[in-house]
Design brief:
198 residues, alpha+beta, 4 helices, 28% helix, 31% strand, globular, 4-stranded antiparallel sheet, Cyclic Phosphodiesterase, Chain: A
Length: 198
């Protein structure tokens, strides 16, 4: 979605995600679009939920935000070398009761994602998040409360029919920035450290 000037309008809101691959992403994207046809989000596990990089509103000029983003990417690139790639296995479809978000749980890899989040939520990207970090894959949100149960049942049926692997390697993360139009833009891909000693 574009702003009135034909370009998206980037804002001081950033996140760090790991996109899911292949058929796994394909199915989860389909389910998400069933509930939000206009959504352009791609299936992902969030490592650092959305956050501003500049805490004082007056600091948030385009130049200042771009500089902060550059510093954040450099910091994350260095910190990610401490983490070798690891595998996550997706579990059941569940609901966050407080927010009515429907999501796929993380069955294996949950502790590794928690450790990574804790280690990366510092320095330029530090942020006091509104909810405790809980690794997951969102598939529906902002539904009317009365629709959540039926939506979750539909998602569980689609998920039960999925015959491909429910696993994914976390080996590369993507640093993303939001826009006024709520369109997340990929800024940089950041590799985890190699498991091989060089």
């Amino acid at each position: 979605m574009n702003g009135s000037n034909g370009r998206v309008t980037r804002i001081n809101s950033f996140a760090l995600v790991s996109y899911l691959p292949g058929p796994l992403a394909g199915l989860l994207d389909e389910i998400r679009h069933d509930f939000a046809p206009e959504s352009r989000a791609k299936a992902h596990v969030t490592i650092l939920p959305p956050r501003p990089l500049l805490q004082i509103p007056g600091e948030a000029s385009d130049t200042a935000v771009a500089e902060a983003a550059g510093e954040a990417m450099e910091q994350l690139k260095v910190r990610l070398q401490e983490f070798p790639p690891f595998k996550v296995d997706l579990g059941a479809i569940e609901i966050f009761e407080g927010t009515h978000v429907i999501y796929v749980s993380i069955q294996n890899g949950f502790a590794e994602l928690e450790r990574m989040h804790s280690a990366l939520n510092t320095g330029r990207v530090a942020f006091q998040e509104p909810y405790p970090y809980h690794p997951h894959v969102t598939i529906a949100q902002e539904l009317a409360p009365e629709d959540v149960h039926n939506a979750a049942q539909f998602a569980r049926w689609r998920w039960s029919e999925f015959k491909h692997s429910r696993s994914a390697w976390i080996d590369r993360l993507t640093f993303v920035q939001n826009t006024l139009e709520n369109y997340w833009t990929d800024l940089a891909m950041l590799n985890l450290g190699s498991p091989v000693i060089r």
